[in-house]
Amino acid sequence: MPESKQIKQIRIVKREEKRPAAQPAAPQRSAAVAARDVKDVVSGWVSEHRRRSEEFRRNYSTLLGELGLSAPRGARAV
After folding, report:
1. Neighbours of 58 (CB within 10 A)
2. pLDDT average per 10 residues of sequence, the chain (78 residues)
């Protein structure tokens, strides 16, 4: 076989992980704390989405107004 088409075999050697004999488990967070963290993150995402949507709606409405067009009912600036 030509040199470029020769298949080279690779042998993978895995090492065993060394674990300490008696390592205390990490303290578990309560489900309520974890749920509150998730709620805070999602709340932040929702607030940011609302803010950006409102900003887009205002910009879109302004742009249409400058072009002499009327904005759709849901996009009219207040």
Report:
1. 15
2. 71 76 63 84 94 94 89 60
